[in-house]
Amino acid sequence: MMDSCEGARKGIEEVKLKEDGNVSAQYESCQLPITCFTEIANDASLHFQIIQFPKQIYVWVGYTSAKLGNLCAAAHTRPNNNVSITSLIGGTSDNTGSGLARRLVLKTGLNVILACNIPKNSPMIEAEAEKILVQKLNSLGYGKSRLEGTSV
Amino acid sequence: MTQFVGQVDEKAEFPRESSSAISDSESSLLPMNSNSSTLPSPQFPVRQNHFSVLIKGNKTQIVVMSYEDHFQVIATQIGTMGTILYARKEEGVSMNPTFSVSVVFGKRDEPMLEACARQLIEKISLSGSSKPLVLSLGLKDHSTETLKGIISAVIHKGLW
């Protein structure tokens, strides 16, 4: 009987901890628009995922696989509002994602976090992916006329 | 082309017969270029779960994604991804796993953010996965209460 009391007490404590986590039990739908789609180009799958934040976009481009790839960040920066890019995870100074991220910033004026697993030295695939992505971003309402460049 | 727009259901495990389920949520389709196939596209390969929760009075948007080789979690209250952390389980022969956490973008002087990543990667490891975690935290405050709330919500709705 003592064991069962101890077990009950532990269970209550565990529940209490969860309650003290100050997380409302109410989970609502996410306000962030998330767009996922796949295009077949040159017999290969190009997967795209776009998460639209109010002041930023996150883009993932997957070439035939669902690996995250290299992650980089790009934005207009002071003092001249030029586009700066930095590699965050994986990649070197010349990986595919950097150029794509830079051009997305130029086209949209947004800060961009881009993950891309397109292999190096694949300019055709990169160009195809960029074309599809820009088309999609335009259809979502992004364009230089919509947004001013945001300095970091 | 297969397209999802807006809300994706929790733990969206896309069924093999994906075209009919997906077409319900499709809006405008991109025009196909000459190199694109018009064959039905494969199901989207990244599982994701996204929701909103109130933490300390702040509405928090959370997205959990499972890539082939990584988990990614985004939690934002400020409209951007904020600080990005990378956490992974280290290879070792010890019985007790060790983990490394580093800030790859953003605030590097907020230990609570790293603690949050550390908690989550340990949880991922305990669930049996060795995939690293990319965690983005764009929060209004870095209090213990807020971060506990984030951890609790993500663990509750995680994809591991």
From TrEMBL, chain A:
InterPro entries given in the database record: PAC4
Pfam family, one: PAC4
PANTHER family on file: PROTEASOME ASSEMBLY CHAPERONE 4
Stated name of the protein: Proteasome assembly chaperone 4
Organism: Stylosanthes scabra
TrEMBL record, chain B:
Pfam families: PAC3
Region: Disordered, residue numbers: 1-42
Biased composition (Low complexity): 18-28
Positions with biased composition (Polar residues): 30-41
Highest rank taxon of the organism: Eukaryota
Name this protein carries in UniProt: Proteasome assembly chaperone 3
Source organism per UniProt: Stylosanthes scabra
Source species taxonomy: Eukaryota, Viridiplantae, Streptophyta, Embryophyta, Tracheophyta
